[in-house]
Each structure stands twice: as C-alpha cells, then as structure tokens.
C-alpha cells in the first residue's frame, strides 16, 4: 500500500478510529493487524517473511538472555544473523551474485547458473536491520529480552515505518508501544500537517524533478553537458525530497497514533564535511551501521591505528552502498563515499589536528566553501546512485565533461528550479535550526495552511505517478 | 464553540466545503451536460444516455455503439457523418436514435455502454466495430487515457453490474474508488481545469514535463499554439484527444493484423460475447452487428487473411446467438477513406446507404426476429 494513495487515506482513517475507540490492549492488536494488512496489501505472502523475522528474533533474544554459556549465546546470535541476513541476501542479492558469478563462469566457459527472478519484498532491508539491532542489543546486555510478543511484533511491523524506516531502536520505540500513549489534539494536527508536507515534497517537488531526470537518464548518450549536470543536481534534490517526504509521512502518521519516531534528516545540504553529511542524511541507517558494524569491526582494540580505522570506515561505507541495491554502481557509490569520509577523517587522524578546527576555517566564507564542496561531492555520488550501471554512469559523466553546451530552455528552467529549491532548503535549515520547532498558529490559520498544502498537491503534482525511491531498497 | 475555535480540523473541513462550492461555480464543465457533450469530457460528441431529454417514450429507441468512425472521424460537420444519416432515416420512420459512438473505442467501453443500454431499455442496438476495438486480455483495464471509462466507472449506479464484465477481472476496487472520488468532487475535477489552462499556454513539447504526459483531453489544437500540429491538420477543428486517436489509429491499422495480436483479441471477443449477449437478452434488446469497412491498403495480404479469420469466427459466435452480423470490412473502396483510415464525407454517405437497408430489415417491425 502506498502512502500517496486514496486507499492509504481510507486505511489511516479506519486505523485512527479504531485506535481512539478501542481499549488500549485491543487497540494494540488492531494496530498490529492493520500493520500486516498494510504490508500484505501488495503481496500477501511477504507477511510470512515479516512473521519469520519476528518469531525468530523474539525467541532467540529470550534464549540469549537466559543462556550463560558464551558459545551458545554466540551461536544463537549467529542463527538470528543467518536468518535475517540470509533472507535479505537471498531476495536482494541473489540475482546480482548469480549474474556476477555467471560473468566469471562464462569467461571460464563453464555453464552458467540460473538467475533467480524473485521480487524484492518491500521493506525487507529496513525491518531486518531493525530486528537485528534488538537481538544484538540483547546479546551485549544493552536491552532486556521482552516477553511481550504482541508488543515486539508491533515493534517490527509498525506500519508507518515498516517499508522505508526510520529504523527504530528497541529502546526508543518499544516503551511507546507497551504503554498507552495519550494522543492530544496537537499530536493529531501536527501529524496531519507533517503528512501533508511530506506528500507535497514527494508528489509535487520530487515527482516533477523526476520527469526531467528520467528523460535525461533514460537516453544518456543524447544528453548535452548542461542537461547532464542539471539532471544530476535535480536527482540529488529528488531523492532528498522523495525520501524525506516519505519520512515526514511516516513520522506524521505515527504522531497521529501518539508515537514519536526518530528524525531521519537534518538539513543535509548544510553539511560541511562528509562526516557531517552522514550524520544528517538517513540518520537512522548511518547510526545503525556505526553502532552495529563499525563498532563490531573495531572490537578488540581500544585505540585502533588510523589506517585500520579508515579501512573499517571504508568497508562500512561500501556495505552501506551495497545495502542500497545489488549493483556494482552502488558498490562504487559506497566506495567513493568511503574514500571521501576517510580522506576527511584521515586529515585529522594523521595530522593530529583538533576537531574543533574545521578544515576550511570558521568564517562565513570558509563555511560557504566547505558547504559548496560538500554539495559538489554529493552531486558526483548522485550519478552513481541514479545510474543503473557503471557504464551508464560513465556515459553521464562523459556528457558532463565533453557534451555539447547548447542552451535549452527546459534545462535552464530546471536549473533555476533546482537552485531555488536547494537555496530554500538551506535557508530553512539555517533559520529552523537542528530541531523541528512547531510554530504556534491560530486554528483558522493552521487550517488555511493545510488548504494551501492541499492545493499545492492537487494542482502541482504531475499526472504520472512515481513510486517512492527508497521502496526499491 | 471553544473546541471548534481551538481545533484546526473543523476549519479545514469548512474551507474544503467552500472550495468545493467555489470549484462548482467556476468550473467550465457543467454537472448536467447537453445532448451532444458529456459532463466531464466536452470533447466527446455523443449523447450521454441518462441526461438526454426524452421527448417521446413511446418511440422505440435505436442506439449506435461504434468507434471513431461513428463519431465522424475527421469529418468536422456532424451532419455529414453516417450516424447522422441513420438518425435522420430512423427519425422519419418513427424511431428515436442515439449515437453512443466514441473514438479510441475499447472493450471496456462496449461492456459499460451495453450495461447502460440495458438500464435505458434500448430497443435495438446497432454495433459497428472492428477487430482493433477488442483488446488483448492483458489490456482489459481502466487505464486507457482517452477513454470515457473514467466517467462510467465513477458512477456508483453502474457498480452492481460490473461483476459481469471482463475488465473488472483486472481492476482493483481502489481504482474504482479513486475514479469515484476524482470525478465526483468539483475540487478534484478543478485539477483538470487548472492543468488545461497551464497546458494551453505551454508548447506541446513541454507537456511531458509540465503535465507528465503529452496531451490533455479536451484541449483544441488551436489552444496548443503549436504551428507544426496546426499545419498538419489545417482545416479540421480537432481536439488534442482526437489527434492522438488518429495517431493511434494509424499505428493500430498496421500493427493490429499481426497474427498473435488478432488471436489474443479473438480470445477477448470469445469471452466478451456471452456476457454481452446475456445482458441484451435480459433487457430484451435486439442486436445487429456490423464489422466496419477498413481501408484496404492499410493492411497487407497476410494481415487481411488473419483479420478475415477473426471476423469469420466472431460472426459465427454472433449468429449462433440468433443475432445477425454483417462483415463489411472489404465493402468500400479505398477512395472513400482519408489517409488515416477514417471515412471521408463520401465514405460516410456510402456507408450510410449500405446500412439503411439493413436497418430497415432488422429494426423496422416485421424485419428479422432473433
């Protein structure tokens, strides 16, 4: 079920009604059933995979907690990792691994393997990571295993964040699911407004940018240099608006149910360096990789040597790139992102420079240069992120460097739009600060704002419908 | 009142209601259409069944269900199309005649129009179609952009009857619900008015980026301000919809006679006809089926033989039900057609002259009984 559909509006209305009218325990069960209905609306049998992750990790966590033997605990954790990552790897990477292996086999004139044609279950990359974080936390003693199966099932399947995050930690979400949350009028209104805002970002800005991006990237050989440049910049904006818009809808929906989800974006266009960027973009994924993978790679050394640290950082970034999709372009994306952040971190590690001293200085001009360079770095990564293959990305890059510089009014308009949107986002980030503040307005003005947002949605969105970009991950 | 003033939701609902009223007042599309334009799609030059003023209930009603040929194709003068001649003739004989033909005709439309025919108590149905009006099974859905399906499917009165249609096998409830919402709300329909306004002031080549697709139904060629398009069709007052249909018709004529395509289209016809026939039998509606003439040079020999087999098999199914079918695909010479495969004015006259004796035989009392 898509967030930007009439079915979801009807579904949400029913869920809210049940949530407010049923007693708390029954309400929780209805929320769980609704989450499975939401997930199974597209492909019902995928609910079995969700249930499998839930049942396996619920039981394994309980067994880990009561087991003292270290080897047994490790074995149980390994089972959880195997089941969850095995499901993820099979569905997401089975085809890619087989195709890559077939290239080698063909070169060796060995018969190739059949390529599996499974469809990727939507959200599997997100909920497997969410459940794994719980199991690992229980293993390390950071969390106590829960006996509340309904609550845990809801933690895994909570529909607002099920298919594309934010990836929530057990310690943050579970307590909210285990106690009755009072839903105030302000929660309903703030949540509704956040949903409208997210839909506008997605359906008006992201989808419109996508029309131009698709047109250029579909036939890269025909693109002029300005078209390739502008389309790439527009794609960076598109994916930000699309994914942050989705997160707004998820957070707004949860807020209407009295649940507070984590923010996933913090004005990434204001980032001054790679480390800063990855603490602002898809925050919950970045912290997951930091806390569960980077930390695991750093185990055994209190102060690892700088090269080891940088290597681990690069490995984590490559894997984070691979998480986004089964393709060499995503691996290269991760590698380049890893090199970027490692170079930045390396300067501080090898020179002993204090972190309090930014690389380019603290003055406004220095900050502007740092932000501009960082945005340029992101735009180059966007080529790999958007292209379906490395060859495709190479063609786009070649267009940028060697393509014709003919001026096209359409390109000019999209360039102006991209600049306006980007500057607008930056300005909002600068004035809004790091925290989302809820502006107090009288009720009629709030309603007027909602009508404006609805009008923007109604008249501003193109006729063609594009799926949320992060659904494919 | 305190709660009302503090909560934004009642104000929001109030503003939406005001918006609905404003949209109703300002929209160029009226709720009650005239006899020759539909409510939400003013380009469709045909009678909209339930809104027509019924002058005389006693007169038997004959309805034409046909494709772009029945609309008139590229003949702008509606008085000179074959349907108009039929209407004139039947009117002289004491019959009411309604032309329900529409361009870009698809299987879904004939299914829904026959439901309407049954509801209206049509006495005699004249169907004039071709092989390309039957879709391969995978295209039986609501997604054709220039179809009136969105209008018909957005009418809840039809919904109890939709279980007996082929297209509902490929249609989700959500699709119907969406169309119900978008076509029943003036505010939702105002989107089309705003988009038309924007599209009318932007060149056609920008439409894929501005609107998301190439053409907007309802826009006239002159509104596009595109000299390339207007020069190609200098003398005809076409809408962009009719332009696109003509392009589609050209492609269709050449593509349609591929053996696999025709076989799949026949599969649809074979499944469609029993449902169609059952509906007519229940309402007591008589049927005459005509396979319309096709410009011969638009098909090659192989295409003609494949097409002929379709018509033979389909006609055999029709005749087994007790109705009569007439295969007139090769009945008219090429000089009676325009380059896009539609009749010219002479072609319309000739076809009308060929159909009138059939109608006299089939429709006038004492003619052919099933």
How does this structure look, described?
The complex is a heterodimer of chains A (473) and B (370). Chain A has two domains: 6-180, no CATH class; 187-472, no CATH class. In chain A, 71% of the residues lie in helices and 0% in strands. Chain A has helices spanning 6-21, 24-40, 46-66, 70-107, 124-139, 149-157, 159-162, 170-178, 185-218, 225-256, 274-278, 283-297, 306-324, 328-351, 364-386, 390-402, 409-432, 443-460. In chain A, helix 12 packs across helix 13. The two termini of chain A are 16 Å apart. The mean pLDDT of chain A is 87. Chain B has a domain at 51-134 and 246-362: Rossmann fold (3-Layer(aba) Sandwich), CATH 3.40.50. In chain B, helix 14 links the parallel strand 4 and strand 5. Chain A binds chain B through residues 5-7, 10, 185, 188-189, 192, 208, 211-212, 215, 410, 443-444, 446-448, 450-451, 454, 458-459, 462-464, and chain B through 5-9, 11-12, 14-16, 19, 174, 177-178, 181, 187-188, 190-191, 194-195, 206, 208-213.
Cα gyration radius of chain A (Å)? 23 Å
Rg of chain B to the nearest angstrom?
A: 22 Å
Poorly predicted runs of chain A = none
C-alpha geometry of chain A: globular
CATH architecture assignment of the domain at 51-134 and 246-362 in chain B: 3-Layer(aba) Sandwich
CATH H-level homologous superfamily name of the domain at 51-134 and 246-362 in chain B = SGNH hydrolase
Tell me, briefly, the overall form of chain B: globular
Distance separating the two termini of chain B: 69 Å
- Report the end-to-end length of chain A measured between terminal Cα atoms: 16 Å
Estimated helix fraction of chain B: 40-55%
The helix fraction of chain A, in percent, is: over 70%
- Return residue spans of chain B where pLDDT drops below 50 for at least 5 consecutive residues: 30-54, 228-235, 244-257
């Amino acid at each position: 079920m898509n967030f930007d559909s009439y079915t979801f509006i009807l579904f949400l209305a029913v869920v809210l009604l049940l949530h407010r009218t049923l007693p708390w325990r029954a309400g929780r069960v209805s929320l769980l059933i609704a989450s499975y209905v939401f997930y199974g609306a597209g492909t019902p049998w995928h609910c079995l995979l969700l249930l499998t992750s839930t049942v396996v990790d619920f039981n394994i966590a309980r067994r880990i907690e009561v087991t003292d033997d270290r080897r047994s605990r490790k074995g149980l954790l390994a089972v959880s990792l195997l089941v969850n990552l095995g499901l993820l790897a099979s569905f997401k990477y089975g085809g890619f691994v087989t195709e890559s292996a077939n290239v080698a086999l063909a070169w060796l004139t060995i018969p190739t393997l059949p390529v599996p044609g499974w469809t990727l279950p939507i959200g599997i990359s997100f909920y497997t990571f969410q459940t794994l974080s719980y199991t690992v936390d229980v293993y390390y003693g950071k969390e106590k295993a829960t006996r509340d199966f309904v609550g845990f099932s809801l933690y895994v399947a909570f529909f607002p964040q099920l298919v594309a995050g934010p990836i929530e930690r057990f310690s943050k979400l579970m307590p909210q699911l285990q106690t009755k949350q009072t839903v105030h009028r302000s929660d309903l209104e703030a949540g509704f407004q956040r949903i409208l805002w997210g839909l506008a970002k997605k359906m008006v800005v992201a989808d419109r940018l996508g029309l131009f991006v698709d047109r250029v990237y579909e036939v890269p050989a025909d693109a002029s240099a300005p078209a390739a440049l502008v389309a790439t910049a527009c794609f960076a904006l598109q994916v930000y608006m699309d994914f942050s818009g989705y997160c707004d809808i998820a957070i707004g929906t949860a807020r209407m149910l009295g649940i507070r989800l984590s923010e996933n974006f913090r004005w990434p266009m204001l980032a001054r360096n790679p480390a800063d960027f990855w603490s602002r973009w898809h925050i919950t994924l970045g912290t997951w990789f930091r806390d569960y993978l980077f930390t695991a790679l750093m185990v055994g050394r209190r102060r690892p040597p700088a090269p080891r640290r940088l290597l681990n950082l690069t490995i984590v970034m490559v894997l984070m790139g691979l998480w986004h999709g089964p393709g060499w372009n995503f691996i290269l994306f991760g590698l380049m992102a890893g090199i970027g952040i490692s170079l930045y971190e390396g300067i501080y590690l090898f020179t002993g420079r204090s972190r309090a001293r930014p690389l380019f200085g603290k003055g406004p001009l220095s900050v502007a240069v740092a932000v501009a360079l960082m945005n340029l770095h992101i735009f180059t990564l966007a080529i790999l992120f958007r292209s379906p293959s490395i060859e495709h990305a190479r063609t786009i890059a070649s267009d940028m460097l060697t393509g014709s510089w003919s001026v096209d009014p359409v390109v000019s308009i999209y360039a102006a739009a991209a600049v306006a949107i980007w500057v607008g986002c930056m300005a909002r980030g600068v004035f809004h600060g790091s925290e989302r503040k809820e502006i107090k307005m009288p009720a009629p003005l709030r309603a007027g704002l909602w009508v404006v947002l609805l009008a923007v949605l109604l008249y501003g969105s193109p006729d063609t419908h594009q799926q949320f970009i992060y659904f494919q991950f | 009142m305190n709660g009302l003033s503090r909560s934004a939701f009642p104000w929001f609902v109030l503003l939406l209601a005001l918006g609905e009223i404003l949209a109703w007042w300002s929209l160029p599309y009226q709720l009650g259409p005239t006899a020759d334009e539909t409510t939400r799609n003013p380009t469709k030059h045909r009678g909209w069944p339930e809104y027509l003023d019924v002058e005389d209930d006693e007169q038997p009603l004959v309805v034409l269900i046909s494709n772009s040929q029945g609309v008139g194709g590229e003949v702008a003068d509606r008085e000179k199309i074959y349907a108009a001649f039929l209407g004139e003739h039947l009117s002289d004989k004491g019959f009411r005649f309604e032309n329900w033909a529409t361009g870009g005709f698809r299987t879904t439309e004939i299914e829904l129009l026959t439901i309407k025919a049954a509801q209206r108590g049509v006495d005699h149905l004249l169907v004039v179609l071709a092989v390309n009006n039957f879709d391969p099974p995978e295209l039986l859905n609501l997604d054709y952009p220039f179809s009136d399906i969105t209008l018909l499917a957005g009418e809840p009165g039809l919904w109890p009857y939709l279980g007996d249609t082929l297209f509902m096998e490929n249609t989700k409830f959500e699709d119907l619900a969406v169309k119900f919402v978008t076509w029943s709300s003036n505010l939702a329909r105002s989107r089309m008015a705003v988009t038309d306004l924007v599209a009318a002031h932007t060149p056609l080549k920008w439409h894929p980026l501005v609107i998301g697709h190439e053409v907007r139904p309802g826009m006239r060629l002159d509104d596009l301000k595109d000299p390339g398009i207007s020069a190609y069709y200098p003398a005809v007052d076409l809408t962009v919809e009719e332009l696109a249909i003509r392009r589609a018709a050209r492609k269709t004529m050449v593509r349609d006679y591929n053996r696999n395509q025709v076989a799949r289209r026949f599969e649809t016809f074979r499944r469609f006809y029993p449902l169609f026939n059952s509906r007519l039998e229940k309402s007591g509606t008589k049927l005459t089926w005509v396979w319309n003439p096709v410009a011969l040079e638009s098909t090659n020999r192989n295409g003609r033989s494949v097409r002929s087999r379709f018509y033979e098999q389909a006609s055999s199914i029709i005749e087994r039900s007790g109705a009569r079918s007439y295969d007139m695909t090769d009945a008219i010479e090429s000089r009676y057609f325009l380059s896009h495969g539609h009749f010219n004015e002479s072609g319309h006259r000739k076809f009308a002259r060929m159909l009138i004796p059939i109608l006299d035989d089939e429709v006038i009392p004492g003619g052919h009984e099933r």
